[in-house]
Prior knowledge:
Layout: E1 2-7, H1 10-16, E2 30-40, E3 43-48, H2 57-74, H3 79-86, H4 90-96, H5 104-112, H6 121-126, H7 133-146
Antiparallel strand pairs: 1-2, 2-3
Helix pairs in contact: 3-4
Amino acid sequence: MQPIQISLSKSQFADSYSIxxxxxxxxxxxxxxAFTFSRRSQGVKIVIGETQSEPNHNLxxxxxxxxxxxxxxxxxxxxxxxxxxxxxxxxQIRKRIRLGLLSPVIQSRIVTGDHPHNWTPTMFVQSxxxxxxxxxxxxxxxxxxxx
Length: 147
């Protein structure tokens, strides 16, 4: 996290609220906090201070789809059939279905939002996700302790 300082102008603040600027403590017009940048699908988000995590909605959607596709595979449907039904390229299904194979601990973190801001669908799709849940947890939960 990087520090950020926001200072308000004493005179402009006083004018905006029709008060005498001599009655304003200048220290009360300076705000300092830590911030970081978080990449999102629609740009960059500035995260200021300690915030409570919230789920990444795109990641939740991808996880739900992946779980649905795995159930379809269990019923005997092929990736090609799922892709045709979803009107998506089979390669996209193949890449994203791996999200449904993440360990229950990681999936729980995705659902609750208790994860770093860089946990995105793209990050998971581009990662070489290990098959063993313990290896997945070692790989991805290490990111949580660094965040």
